[in-house]
């Protein structure tokens, strides 16, 4: 991940987690960010604000961060994954706006599509694409600009070696181009920039749909049919157009009330479900509409439950109710609410705004959520209750689908155009990447063969090296950190011997420039060390021992520290103990001094 | 100082080759290359030395410089080094200068 994006994401994550554990602190941080308008930051909030200014994003008092093209997320409410995804998309736009490179043009990129395709490739295939994008396969015409020895012509055919020539014209690569004829014909016409930088494009009107969905308002609390026994049954469902295509997705919800007052009425009304023109007199559509906020089916299903709870709270506050849904997600959310566990993980789950309100309205002793299988034919019902649920769910599904048919025709056309564009772009981009991979493989092989014939050094495709095999001998190469620390603490292999001890008189230590006591202490300290028998040989797997550890060991055993000269020379030499408090005070540039030492 | 002592004693005190890229501190989490000996000896006080080094590196909080004082409160040395009647700096230097002069002369005469 880009380091700047990583920093932005970390800052946002911290504030989001703070919003969970210390909400007031998070709100105050956001407030400080909003109020700060300077350019010299002095703390975390102002620094984060300056970072946002650098990429041109704005923050609002409610925690909303708004970027280019109607991208938006809320740092206090949205889950971290959504924040990170939105940041990724916004930063891509910001970078491409600032980039001046061939292939980046006046269009909206679709980073999600490129990531989706790229991540599916094998490691070596990714490497081939990466090199192409990052400029790894430099053309000879480019090399010729800075190197007089290069003539700028293609090694394989002799014509001027440009990007277009390589990918679309070079005769030596005809066999690959024949296999990918369609790509080679469509790319120069519709996506000429891909020759330099393959970036899939969004539909030019994609932001219109994004802006339109942000205009969807919350519906007023719908009225419900009053039941005499004060017990209510609702069927809820969500639906979406293009559920697999995020940029062309519009989600809807519906709430159906079971208004039958008795079992007999229910059984009678069920007969109508099997007629030539099925209709359902015992079910009344309470409310339906489009989902405000993110457009996805799970949010729609959850929003429908929220609408039911709002209605019950307003019109039948003491009633009991059953809500039937086909969404497992909704059942899980309700279970999390009843068990009071969702708050702890609220920074990691989506739709927190809805869950929060459901939590306030949900009464576990009066309300019940029931799961029903979705899209099941009525014949599969094994009991009257089953059939009743299937029919109710079917009605809710029909209602939710009908909402999508009432979308304004212009928007409907836009949604269809967006979906078609994504499918076409997906196919075209995928094929181009496959072509690029095969092309690069083939060209590298040809260059290798060509240079082999010429007797010049070849440039074969480099393969990623495997991790080195662990060495497990006296030193285990896999150990790091605390494990290595524990190993070194008890380091004491067999066959280590001290060096032959030589006896010297104390007079000899008087020659030691740093002092007789220190000289004797050092000799005594070094005599206690035990060395491997083959100590002269260099063994790469041996970790060795730093002078620092040697100094620590010496200090620990004798109480002496090594001295360093700080001024004077010969008999006027002044010394001071290295790494002591006195040295830090006496030497103004102690850090540089230690490095030099 | 070790070299100085080896000259005086005319004997090797550290048999291992010296290296400028010692791996032991890297294993303990200190990133920059440091100098040391290429072969690790067994230390008599390995446990407390490594523990002190570990605490020291941890306290650097990612800094790449070993510039904090090496200090242990209430240190009780395990080796008792009897104090010698030390000469002053000038006398030590003069004796050392005379010693090295003798050494050079004997080498020039073809002696050891």
Give the strand content of chain A.
5-15%
Which series of helices and strands of chain B comes N to C? HEHEHH
What gross morphology of chain B would you assign?
A: extended
Structural class of chain A: alpha+beta
- What proportion of the residues of chain A is helical, as a percent range? 40-55%
| Euclidean distance between termini CA atoms of chain A | 38 Å
Overall geometric form of chain A: extended
Helical proportion of chain B, percent range: 40-55%
Report Rg of chain A: 36 Å
| Low-pLDDT residue spans of chain A | none
In terms of quaternary structure, what is this?
heterodimer
What order do the helices and strands come in, and which of them pair?
The complex is a heterodimer of chains A (597) and B (112).
Chain A (H helix, E strand, L loop, with lengths): L2 H19 L1 H13 L8 H12 L2 E2 L4 E3 L5 E3 L5 H19 L12 H10 L2 H12 L5 H7 L16 H7 L4 H6 L1 H10 L15 H9 L16 E11 L8 E9 L4 H8 L12 E8 L6 H19 L4 E6 L2 H11 L13 H10 L5 E5 L12 H22 L3 H46 L26 H9 L6 E2 L8 H4 L6 H12 L3 E2 L12 E2 H12 L4 E5 L6 E4 L3 H6 L3 H7 L1
Parallel strand pairs in A: 4-7, 7-8
Antiparallel strand pairs in A: 1-2, 2-3, 4-5, 5-6, 9-10, 12-13
Helix pairs in contact in A: 1-2, 1-4, 2-3, 5-17, 6-17, 13-15
Chain B lengths: L1 H8 L8 E5 L1 H4 L6 E4 L8 H14 L29 H20 L4
Antiparallel strand pairs in B: 1-2
